[in-house]
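QA checklist item 7 of 12: single-chain prediction sanity check.
[x] sequence parsed
[x] length recorded as 68
[x] structure emitted
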Amino acid sequence: MSNMQTPCISICAIDPASGLCTGCRRTLKEIGGWSALSDEQRRELMDILPLRVIAPAITSGQSTERHA
């Protein structure tokens, strides 16, 4: 029996702008299919997860411009 690795860090929330989990950066499809992947497929996905960028939150009412 293999010890299945996972990128989950128990911070589970999907960013609506990117569709990625804010904790592990996987999509819902990747999370749901994780256990069906081979060890090699999981390693390959884990290698690219750090490269994924979660869209920053957009804040309203803040500007860097100053008006006199």
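[x] summary fact logged: The first helix runs from residue 28 to 32.
[ ] second reviewer sign-off
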